[in-house]
């Protein structure tokens, strides 16, 4: 099988021919049909974060495909079934986080395309319990971006507790942001979309954003404040100054939900303002299996649109460059 492999941080990925992996107990072998390129895969390939993957590894946590073989003891899935393999590759199922509906916080979790090989390949392994069934009626190339970009932003809006009539700022209308705009609209919010390219702002508008803020020309904090301030701001841009602007645009009682993960990212949170304004700053990491099932259900019901370009896996390095230059309409999906 063909796989795109990170051999060293910061180096181009190498397309390799590898033997098909063998499914162990509790695992399945999947023939990958489509695999989305998340900005997280780029952070992984660059070794951007304090906890690093160990090269050589295969990135990709939006892999969608068909179960080809079952490992010992797998009863939950059947050969021929379409599944997706999200970032949460496995969790222990026994700790306080797993037991309280927060499996995404499990300290024993293994992350797909980071702690084990991911979906940038023609075949991949998955833990059967964490491979998500993709409902009929969702194409593999639509299911792929929903598997991380979708579930992550759907969860971020849940964490923000967004209600109808609230003003929600979506900072960064990339792979994640284009779905965040749609979930915020579904939640009944008025949506302010912030980005730094005309194309992304046009896309946000086409997807229902009510207010467009071009951070090259205007200070998003000022514009949001002029509209009364945001009840919630979802920080999806890989840029610390965008976090600061989103924080600054909150109204009293507002919530900044941190989702993007810029390398070595920090922001200074002013204590006085945070206390007096009753501001919340919350981190949000992907979503649970249940969140992902809800994301698929919304899409199958025709309530979301996935904006993506499909490409062959061989284009992985050019595709990464284009994502870094923000030249992609929303998501790139590799079709195998
Ligand atoms: P992306 O590159 O597709 O999107 C980023 C967007 O931000 C682009 O549209 C870009 O034009 C815009 N942008 C850049 N500078 C900006 C600025 N100053 N103000 C406003 N917008 C600006 O990336 P993505 O795949 O959507 O991922 C975004 C981030 O989220 C990455 O850091 C990724 O690792 C992270 N992520 C986090 C989670 C999580 O669970 N917390 C899950 C998935 C991805
Ligand atoms: Zn656990
Ligand atoms: Zn991702």
Automatic annotation (TrEMBL):
Q: Where is the Enoyl reductase (ER) domain?
A: 10-334
UniProt cofactor(s)? Zn(2+)
Pfam families hit by this protein: ADH_N, ADH_zinc_N
EC class of this enzyme?
oxidoreductase
Keyword line: Metal-binding, NAD, Oxidoreductase, Zinc
Instruction: Give the GO molecular function terms.
Output: alcohol dehydrogenase (NAD+) activity; zinc ion binding
* InterPro entries listed in its UniProt record: ADH-like_C, ADH-like_N, ADH_Zn_CS, ER, GroES-like_sf, NAD(P)-bd_dom_sf
Name the Gene3D superfamilies on file.
Answer: Medium-chain alcohol dehydrogenases, catalytic domain, NAD(P)-binding Rossmann-like Domain
Reaction(s) catalysed by this chain's protein = a primary alcohol + NAD(+) = an aldehyde + NADH + H(+); a secondary alcohol + NAD(+) = a ketone + NADH + H(+)
Q: What is its EC number?
A: 1.1.1.1
Q: Which PANTHER family match?
A: ALCOHOL DEHYDROGENASE 1-RELATED, VACUOLAR PROTEIN SORTING-ASSOCIATED PROTEIN 11
The entry assigns this protein to a family as follows:
Belongs to the zinc-containing alcohol dehydrogenase family.
Name of this protein:
Alcohol dehydrogenase
Q: Which organism is it from?
A: Actinacidiphila alni
Question: Species lineage, top-down?
Answer: Bacteria, Bacillati, Actinomycetota, Actinomycetes, Kitasatosporales
């Amino acid at each position: 099988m063909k796989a795109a492999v990170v051999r060293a941080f910061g180096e181009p990925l190498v397309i390799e021919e590898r033997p098909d992996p063998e499914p162990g107990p509790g695992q399945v072998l999947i023939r990958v049909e489509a695999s989305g390129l998340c900005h997280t895969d780029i952070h992984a390939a660059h070794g951007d974060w304090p906890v690093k993957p160990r090269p050589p590894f295969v990135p990709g946590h939006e892999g969608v495909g068909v179960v080809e073989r079952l490992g010992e003891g797998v009863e939950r899935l059947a050969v021929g079934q379409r599944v997706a393999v999200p970032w949460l590759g496995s969790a222990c199922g026994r700790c306080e986080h797993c037991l309280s509906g927060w499996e995404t916080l499990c300290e024993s979790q293994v992350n797909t395309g980071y702690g084990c090989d991911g979906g940038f390949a023609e075949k991949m392994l998955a833990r059967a319990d964490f491979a998500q069934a993709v409902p009929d009626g969702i194409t593999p190339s639509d299911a792929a971006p929903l598997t991380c970009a979708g579930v992550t932003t759907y969860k971020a809006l849940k964490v923000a507790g967004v209600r109808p009539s609230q003003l929600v700022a979506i900072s960064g209308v990339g792979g994640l942001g284009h779905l965040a705009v749609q979930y915020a609209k579904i939640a009944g919010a008025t949506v302010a979309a912030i980005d730094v390219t005309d194309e992304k702002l046009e896309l946000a508008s086409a997807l229902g954003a009510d207010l467009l803020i071009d951070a090259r020309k205007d200070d998003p904090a000022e514009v949001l404040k002029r509209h009364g301030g945001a009840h919630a701001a979802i920080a999806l841009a890989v840029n610390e100054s965008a976090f600061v602007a989103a924080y600054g645009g909150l109204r009293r009682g507002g919530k900044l939900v941190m989702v993007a993960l810029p390398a070595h990212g920090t922001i200074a949170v002013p204590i006085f303002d945070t206390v007096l304004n009753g501001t919340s700053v919350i981190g949000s990491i992907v979503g649970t299996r249940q969140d992902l099932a809800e994301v698929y259900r919304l899409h199958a019901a025709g309530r979301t649109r996935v904006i993506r370009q499909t490409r062959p896996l061989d284009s992985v390095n050019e595709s990464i460059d284009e994502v870094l230059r923000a030249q992609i309409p929303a998501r790139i999906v590799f079709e195998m």
